[in-house]
């Protein structure tokens, strides 16, 4: 490949990224502006929140439970002789609240909710349902995007709380049955490592991830094309984009932990 | 009245519309026919503001669609109903929900019984019983979906109805039924209709006036009888090729 070709490719990639950034920026602006008309999206937001919450709850609880078990075992494995066993509970609580609870919940929901929204809106796009909405005088952002974004942003908070609680409980169960901790030691360790700042940090992440999942999936879905195969590619692209953004946000939000603790 | 002046549009660098001029009078039923890929649907999308032209103008009741602001586009769309090629019913909504969408936004807030009565009337007009009201589009046949799409178009009593290939994908019996339905609906609701089709029989059966669009331009226009009799080479080529295509 010649230098000219390489530069041309780079130029196209930069142009593509700039176009996406611009379009996503416009969608963000229109979405935020539409929030000022709650009557237009509130009832559909409840429907979406119920759907996301009910469909995602089982998987989120399972992931939370498994995370707690793994966290307890790995923390226990790292303990040098002589260190207090309460550290195991601390590892579970800190790990669940700051990372595993919000991040794994978000990744699970990226696969479930993100792919679902991407495919649903993508199908609507390729079957002219979005155009039909426009010709009927409806705004697809208000009808489709805002309810999903509001629902996802709000519903992730209780889901992350439940994932955290499930992880801490499963950590307790495994610690007291297999790792040799007494209930009192686990409670003492958990209390010692818990602070409100970590919970607030967990919930800040839940809100940020909930918005990211639904907004990214909506953006990718509305840009679908190419028939049924295009919808499949859209769902995949939505999940990939969401997971990348979740990890980027996780890095960006890391300093917030210092600020709230 | 709809006036289209010197409309140009390129898609993917390829000229699809290359200076289309067209005028649709009040109450008229106009058929736009032509081979596939000649920009018939693209032309319809310009009328309702789903596409912006590269050059030229589309004026609907005095409003220039390409240069209209959000309110202007809203005003234009409130006068136009669009029946999509694949029906484009909202698959998460029941037939009732789809028909309610044909009414102005907010029209059914607190008025569900009145809107349901309007939905029943619209279904009656397209020869469907109200048994389908609570069904989802996926539970309907292709012909029934097309009827519901037409019912959604007429429920709001809009001034113009645009039909994009209304019989495509239907078997001959259902296609004939849909043609008869469109003809009857056009008479009953007194709307101005534009029907895009590559089906010559449909065009000649439904339209007061027929336009042949080919090569991005209006090649010929006239009443169905005038076009049948014309020696215009583009019209002859299209009409003569059609029976062969039909057999194939």
Topology overview:
The complex is a heterodimer of chains A (261) and B (248).
Chain A: H1 3-34, H2 38-78, H3 86-126, H4 129-135, H5 140-177, H6 183-193, H7 196-222, H8 227-260
Chain B: E1 2-11, E2 14-24, E3 29-33, H1 40-47, E4 55-60, E5 63-64, H2 70-79, E6 80-83, H3 95-101, H4 112-125, H5 142-155, E7 160-164, H6 172-189, E8 192-197, H7 200-206, E9 209-214, E10 217-222, H8 224-229, H9 233-247
Parallel strand pairs in B: 3-8, 3-9, 6-7, 7-8
Antiparallel strand pairs in B: 1-2, 1-4, 4-5, 9-10
Helix pairs in contact in B: 3-5, 4-5, 5-6
Number of helices of chain B: 9
What percent of the residues of chain B sit in helical stretches (DSSP H or I)?
25-40%
Query: What is the 3D shape of chain B?
Result: globular
Number of strands of chain B: 10
> Structurally, how many domains make up the residues of chain A?
2
List the secondary-structure elements of chain A in sequence, H or E: HHHHHHHH
Task: Summarize the structure in words.
The complex is a heterodimer of chains A (261) and B (248). Chain A has 261 residues and is an all-alpha fold. Helices cover 89% and strands 0% of the residues of chain A. Chain A has 2 domains: 34 residues; 219 residues, no CATH class. The mean pLDDT of chain A is 91. Chain B is of the alpha/beta class and 248 residues long. Chain B has one domain: P-loop containing nucleotide triphosphate hydrolases (Rossmann fold). In chain B, the strands form 2 sheets. Chain B has a 6-stranded mixed sheet, with helices on both faces. A 4-stranded antiparallel sheet of chain B has the order 2-1-4-5, with helices on one face. In chain B, a hairpin with a 2-residue loop joins strand 1 and strand 2. The longest helix of chain B has 18 residues. The radius of gyration of chain B is 18 Å and the shape is globular. The C terminus of chain B is likely disordered. Chains A and B meet through helix 3 and helix 4 of A and helix 2 and strand 6 of B.
